[in-house]
Structure formats: structure tokens, C-alpha cells
Amino acid sequence: MGVFEIVAKDLGGRIGRLYTKSGVVETPALFPVVDPRKQEVPSEVLKRYFGQVITNSYFIYRLAKGGDVNVKRLLKWDGVVMTDSGAYQILRYGTVDVDPDEILLYQHKIGSDIGVILDLPFDYEEPYHSALLKVEETLRRARRATRLLKDLDMLVVAPIQGATYLDLLRRSARELSQMGFPIYAVGSPTTLLEEYRFDTILEIVLEAKMAMVRDAPLHLFGAGHPLILPFAVALGVDLFDSASYILYARDGRIMLRDRTLRLDDAKSEYLPCSTKLCQTPVKELREMPREERTLLIAEHNLAVLREELMEIRQRIHEGTLWEYLEAKARAHPSLYRFLKKLSKFRRYIEALDPETHPKPHGLFFYHDTSPSRPEPLRHFTRLENVDPPSKKALVVKASTKPYNRSWEYRYLKELVGERVHIIFYDPVFGAVPEELAEVYPLSQNEAEGESEEARARLYEWLNRYDEIYTYGVDIPLVGKAVRRLSSIEDARYIA
Ligand SMILES: [Zn+2]
Questions:
Q1: Which residue ranges make up the annotated binding site for substrate?
Q2: Following CA atoms 319, 323, 324, 329 in sequence, which dihedral angle do they give, to the nearest 10 degrees?
Q3: Residue of 84, 113, 199, 238 marked catalytic
Q4: Which has the higher per-residue pLDDT, 67 or 432?
């Protein structure tokens, strides 16, 4: 058994179990960031919501002057501890005064369960030539680290570099994948997150995921907002870390599942939530000593992040992650934009998505965003293998699903027998040949509106026939004449 076991899947998202020496992390999981120099939120509070934390080993290294420390004792934490290598400090201050091998070994020495190699991160504004140098240096460091892997009682994370330079990103993902690290990571440039440019971050994730080894767990650095979590999970991210719960708390920003609310902007008597924070009247919160309030908001933020992850897990089990993304996409235009754009990558998503779920469920379709989801594409692909049994097609709009049990079908079948191939018109799937009508999810869905692509695909499909008849559907000329039956009985005259 490997270190990561996948338990359930939906789209590219998965529920998994990551085995560390201190216990199992149930994924998708978030590691709250804890500052070893000043722990603002006590461990007991963190523990109510999360079984794992991440801290900065470079701070500990500096604090202890490279000496022997036990990270769990230091943090008063007995769950799983992940350590970062100080790469973020490079990003902010340009350099850290420690050797990359040394800081990796140090993470092991202090008892970290998951360590990260010291990469050379860069922001998305980095010029190409220096980005290239940093990617190459990180690959060199990773290669050197592989020699240490077997001696370390710690899972090691290899960060995939490249940011918005997709060629570098793909190269980094491919080359690192060949080195066999137990965990991979992608950085999410903090500036992008702060500017709510979720679509850019998600595209980076998607590109990295497409180029890397698929089954390995993927960590997304620094993306700790309930808005981005389900999208990142749907693309295949398993692990997150974030200091957002406390950073937001410090300036009175309250995370909600679909947005961020500033305490200053809260107008009602109470906040729209039921955590400890939110049971206190807003007026009292405003008058409270700052530190006390910060702690309460931080705890609320942790609770909301946990709730979001629980929702995501439930959605994966149900197989309704896509529906959840559609609902969530309305919360911010950049998410909506991303979801629509995902149609470009749907072949990839379709390949990751399990074809059937343990418990088949009804799907909801919306004309604007649902064409990006995997099921229509899967149907169009399946259609390519269907050989029409007749050169005559009758396109029908049936009143009930499954279409082949509708009264229209039974009636028409009596009249035309095998002379004519009956095709149902479906607003999402386009052409549904009679023999496929009961294939999941062709009859287990509820659609609002119709997709343009479904019509286009239907017209294309009709090119296979010499004679086309329709009943209840308007179809313009598709290369050849289309005869519309004015009443269902007229079907008997199709010779
Ligand atoms: Zn609350």
C-alpha cells in the first residue's frame, strides 16, 4: 500500500487517506498555518476543527539555531505536523541563509511528518528568464533530495514551479513526477488570491495536474478561502494550507462559505452564522478587546473552513460536486468564468470522473455552465460508436423519461417497427438513439434550458441518414430535407 489511498471520486476530486507516521490525514484536508514564534490561536482551539497543522521549519531553525527541538512539543500538538521550508521567506525577503539539504534534514530531525524541499518560489510577475533559472534550480534540488528520501521518516513534498508560464509549469510537473516524490505541491501566488483572481490560480492547478502523475496527492499552497476550495478539489487538489483564518481575523474579516464579511460592514444585530463568535451581538463584538475578538473570529474562520471541507466530501460521496461548483460559481465572476472555461478541458475532467457512482443520482443541467461537465461529452463520445440500424431517422420529443418508455415511443414503435431509427431529442445530450435511452444519466437528469452544443451535435448526427422525419421537434434543413409529421399517426406513412 502506498502513502495515499483513494476512497471515493467525483470529477477530478477525491476523498483519500494520507498515511503519515503520526496518523492518517483524511483528505481533502487543510493544514492551518501555525507560527512557532507566536501561537495566537491555542492548540486546543485548532484541534476542535483540524487534526493537522503546518508550521515554518525555517523559523524554528533560526529560533533554535539549528539545534534539536521537537516540533510537536514546541507547538503543543500531538496530531500530524507538516513543515514548510522557508520558501515563502525567500519570496518575501529574497533569500534565506540555509542550505536546501540542511533544511530538509532539519525538518526530519525536529519530527515533522510531512516536509517540503526548499524550492525557489516566484510570483506571477517574475520575468521569464529568471523564472526559468528558478525552475531549473528547484529541479536540481529536488533531484538531490531524492537521494535522501529513503532515509527520512517523513513524507517529502516536491513543489511544482512555473506559475503562469505554462511551458515551465508542465516541464516542472513532468520532471518532478519522474522522481517519485510521495506528495506534490503547487503554489498559489498570494497576490492572485488577494485579488480574487481564482480563475488564474485554478488554471495553474489544472495545467500542473494534467502534466503530473495523477494518483499522487497534490497540495495547493496558501489557498484558504471557502470559495476556491471546492474548485481546487474538483481539479484534483487533496491538501491545502492556509494562514487566512488568522490573517483575516486580525483585520476583522469574517469568512463565510460564499464570501467574506467585514465586521465593520455587518449591519444586522447578529452575524449570519451559529459559531461562538456569531452568538455574540455585533455591537458587543465591536466593543470587545481586539485580541479577544481576533481569537473569536479566527475560531469562526476555522469552523467555516472545516464546514466547507465537509460539504465537499459529502458532495464527492454523492457525486454532486459539479452541481455544487455551479451553485458556488455564482458567488464570484472569476469562478463563474473559470467554470465556463472548463469546457476546454472537459476531456481531461471526463477522463478523471468515475463513470458511475455507487448510488446513481439525478443530475441538474443549466444551459450556461453544464456544457462543461463530463457527462454530455461522454455521451457524444459514446454516440460515435452507434451504428444506425436504418437509413431513416425519426426525431422525437418525448414527454417522459426514460424516453423509450414514453407513450410517444410505444405508439411510434407500433407504427414504424424496425423500418425507422427513433432518435429522441434531448436538450442536454442532443441525439439519444432509442437503444441508449436508459443509459445513465440520460434519463436521470433535470434540465433547465438547452445547450447549443446539444443541437449542433444532433444535426451532425443526422448526417448519417438519408431520410429524416421529426415529430414535436423543430429542425431546420440539415443538408437534406427534413419532413415534419403534423400528427403522430402520420408516422405510419413512412415506408
Ligand atoms: Zn460564525
A1: 119
A2: 150
A3: 84
A4: 432
Compute the distance from residue 34 Cα to the ligand 1 centre, in Å.
21
User: Cα Rg for the chain, rounded, in angstroms?
Assistant: 27
CA of 190 to the centre of ligand 1 (A): 25
Q: What is residue 237's three-state secondary structure? A: coil
Helix (H, G, I), strand (E, B) or coil at 384: coil
Binding residues for Zn(2+) are 273, 278
19 - beta bridge partners? Answer: 24
Catalytic: 84?
yes
CATH value of 4-343 in 3.40.50.2000, 2.170.150.40, 3.20.20.105, 1.10.620.20: 3.20.20.105
331: buried, middle or exposed (CB in 10 Å: 19+, 13-18, 0-12)?
Answer: middle
Residues 438 and 454 sit within 8 Å (Cβ to Cβ): no
Number of H helices, E strands in the chain: 19, 20
Residues 220 and 186 sit within 8 Å (Cβ to Cβ):
yes
**Cβ < 5 A residues, ion ligand 1:** 273, 275, 277-278, 300
DSSP assignment, residue 187? E
How is domain 365-493 classified at the architecture level of CATH? 3-Layer(aba) Sandwich (3.40)
List, as one string, the DSSP characters of 387-427.
PPSSSEEEEE--SSSSGGGSHHHHHHHHHHTTSSEEEEEET
- How much distance in Å is there from the Cα of 236 to the middle of ligand 1? 29
Q: 338-387, pLDDT tens digit by residue?
A: 999 888 888 888 888 887 766 667 788 888 888 888 999 999 999 998 99
Known binding residues: 119, 273, 278
